[in-house]
Inverse folding.
């Protein structure tokens, strides 16, 4: 089948809009027509070659929503016409990780996903006889994409796909990091570092959990208004406060926040987020993705004196089992998504979407195929 797709031929090059050939789904695989896809910071990290898994040429995109067009043999949990969200984290329900019920990290098909192929080791995308890699097992920058059945969340059919696509990554990561991986109690204080889709969603998670003080931190002053709209009670711009961010947070909270959530991927910010957690009990949850090989260091006494440092992957959410609940939270008005979408563009404008993200002008751009 022919499909329009944005191809990343090499790192640090503009994506190229091409007509590709998409092979039919194999056993246990599903052909999905993507309706819309967000552009996430993690796509940029890959495009900049900073991801150790970088393998070009590839089709980026991991924050999409669409409908099932065709099912390969053996597929029985979704059917043609179903609304679905592709998952970069599968949920096989059979591997030791899934059975443990202690993590949402299903690694059953991780190896081939990271190699840029389907679980059988081959790709379903071809451009002029050249195989094109998959990215994160989702490749939502193609109108038609092939996804393993175990990496598809079936969702209710009455949702706007061009909104709930953000539940494929950013919104779920931010809300879930607070609701699943932190321990925010009513009346608590929370600091959120970095106000992209992930951070703004973490603010929403803090609000839902009943936090009383929600401190939003970003070097881009334009983020203040939307952060306050979504529940932030304070805004800090580290570039203009004239003191260290951590000191400013300590002043606002009598010593530190109960929970800090880092959503930038910047090492110095990660360190600040750990330090900002209250001595004795504060928890810091890291969500940002560092460039491959980077490390962050902290004085051990910070954790010896009672701070907890954790990380969060896709908000701790098991995609197939739990994403439908997040869709319900959106449909019931508990989670705001529409306000996060600053730009609606066509897939042909994908490079503009990356420019808007890098310049800080966009909160989230959504690319449309329809
Ligand atoms: P984004 O690029 O839209 O937003 C990042 C925000 O951080 C921007 O508003 C920027 O102005 C701000 N920022 C940058 N440097 C800063 C600094 N020094 N101090 C304060 N603020 C600063 O990114 P997005 O899409 O919201 O993703 C955030 C991070 O989360 C990225 O590192 C991304 O790769 C990662 N991520 C992690 C996931 C996970 O499962 N853990 C899933 C999705 C994204
Ligand atoms: Zn993402």
């Amino acid at each position: 089948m022919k499909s329009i797709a944005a191809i990343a031929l090499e790192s640090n090059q503009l994506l190229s809009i091409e007509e590709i050939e998409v092979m039919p789904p194999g056993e246990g695989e599903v052909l999905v027509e993507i309706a819309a896809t967000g552009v996430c910071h993690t796509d940029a990290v890959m495009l900049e070659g900073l991801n150790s898994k970088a393998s070009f040429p590839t089709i980026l995109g991991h924050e999409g929503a669409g409908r099932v067009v065709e099912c390969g043999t053996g597929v029985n949990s979704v059917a043609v016409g179903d609304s679905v969200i592709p998952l970069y984290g599968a949920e096989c329900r059979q591997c030791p990780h899934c059975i443990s019920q202690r993590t949402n990290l299903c690694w059953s098909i991780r190896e081939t996903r990271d190699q840029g192929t389907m679980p059988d080791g081959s790709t379903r995308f071809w451009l002029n006889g050249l195989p094109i890699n998959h990215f994160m097992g989702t490749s939502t920058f193609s109108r038609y994409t092939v996804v393993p059945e175990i990496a598809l969340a079936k969702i209710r059919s009455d949702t706007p796909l061009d909104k709930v696509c953000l539940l494929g990554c950013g919104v779920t990561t931010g809300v879930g990091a607070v609701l699943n991986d932190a321990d925010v109690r009513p009346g608590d204080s929370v600091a959120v570092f970095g106000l992209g889709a992930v951070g703004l969603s973490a603010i929403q998670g803090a609000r839902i959990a009943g936090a009383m003080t929600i401190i939003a931190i970003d070097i881009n002053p334009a983020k203040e208004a939307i952060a306050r709209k979504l529940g932030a009670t304070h805004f800090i711009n580290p570039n203009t406060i004239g003191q260290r961010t951590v000191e400013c947070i300590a002043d606002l909270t009598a010593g530190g926040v109960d929970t800090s959530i880092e959503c930038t991927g910047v090492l110095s910010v990660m360190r600040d987020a750990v330090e900002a957690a209250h001595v004795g009990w504060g928890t810091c949850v890291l969500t940002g993705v560092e460039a491959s090989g980077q490390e962050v260091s902290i004085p051990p006494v910070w954790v010896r004196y009672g701070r907890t440092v954790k990380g969060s992957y896709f908000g701790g959410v098991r995609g197939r089992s739990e994403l439908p609940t997040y869709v319900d939270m959106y449909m019931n008005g508990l989670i705001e998504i529409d306000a996060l979408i600053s730009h609606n563009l066509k897939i042909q404008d994908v490079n503009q979407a990356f420019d808007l993200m890098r310049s800080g002008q966009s909160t989230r751009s959504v690319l449309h195929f329809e």
Notes: The pocket of zinc ion (ligand 2) is lined by residues 40, 42, 62-63, 169-170 (CB under 6 Å). The longest helix spans residues 197-209. The two ends are 17 Å apart (CA to CA). The mean pLDDT is 96.
